[in-house]
């Protein structure tokens, strides 16, 4: 099928893009595979089929693909309507437009009516760097967590994204997926599986447990490895499902570690750190919690790599933040 003049499915332009961002290929490819297998999947996007890799789905299933143009709110409302017919709509746009711009439609048309719409917010956090504040999504976890009945998932890498998409097909109710720009380093092997609402434990730590989500899982694992090499006992929880939170895993870590540190590419208010703080305070667990992320400010504008370094959200920064916490906890 011809996709667009000068940008065919096998053109070097598109292949180069997908090679640089394999997560994009996982998004379009996995959804196309699900459609091949007979699942009632339909897919839509708001004029971003190249940015999110859904051109791969369009190429294989043009009859199940919808292009909404720059009309995100309309896309979400239409997805709610499609879901009432027995279809499983997966609709995608930049996370800032999905969670912020279309918040009312998510709440009223999708979540309130309990429709099984899958909302994909890609290029979340500060991954859009130079695009600036209008395109940064550092509030979306707080927004989506507060919407009743909405499941919130932030996969760590390409394999986890594919696994989460598969796990969501028969999941009841609506789901918000928070993903980056498809360039996250590999954490899991291809073909991995995950259970929605069940954290993945990477070791336990008597000194510190890092609770990370999405793009921050790999830096947290790198930081934990460096700290472990220096004699600290450090565990990591991949909290891919931010809502519902795996309460058992969090409480186990809180009771078994001297310190907890959440790590998220998000404002420290209302996201993963807020969810963990609410839980441990309600259960009265006496453990110190440090929330690491963007500290209640509009993120700066610049290359994503520079922004991660500035906010201590790369591996070196997470390690440094954790060392500061460990030193403070020892005093």
Description:
- It comes from Streptomyces antimycoticus.
- Its cofactor is thiamine diphosphate.
- The structure is a single chain.
- With 331 residues, this protein is an alpha/beta fold.
- Strands 2-1-3-4-6-5-10 form a seven-stranded mixed beta sheet, with helices on both faces. Strands 7-9-8-11-12 form a five-stranded mixed beta sheet, with helices on both faces.
- It has 13 helices and twelve strands.
- It is globular.
- Termini separation: 65 Å
Under the CATH scheme, the architecture of the largest domain is 3-Layer(aba) Sandwich
In CATH, the topology of the largest domain is named Rossmann fold
H-E order: HHEHEHEHHEHEHEEEHEEHEHEHH
Shape: globular
Low-confidence stretches: 1-6
Beta-strand residue fraction: 15-25%
Tally the structural domains: 2
| Helix-strand makeup class | alpha/beta
Number of helices: 13
Strand neighbour order, sheet with most strands:
2-1-3-4-6-5-10
List key phrases describing it.
331 residues; alpha/beta; Rossmann fold; 2 domains; five-stranded mixed β-sheet; 13 helices; 12 strands
Task: Outline the fold blueprint.
Layout: H1 12-20, H2 22-36, E1 41-45, H3 55-60, E2 65-67, H4 72-83, E3 88-94, H5 95-101, H6 103-111, E4 118-122, H7 140-145, E5 151-153, H8 158-168, E6 175-178, E7 200-202, E8 208-212, H9 217-229, E9 234-238, E10 241-243, H10 247-256, E11 259-267, H11 272-282, E12 288-294, H12 304-310, H13 315-330
Parallel strand pairs: 1-2, 1-3, 3-4, 4-6, 5-6, 8-9, 8-11, 11-12
Antiparallel strand pairs: 5-10, 7-9
Helix pairs in contact: 1-2, 2-8, 4-6, 9-13
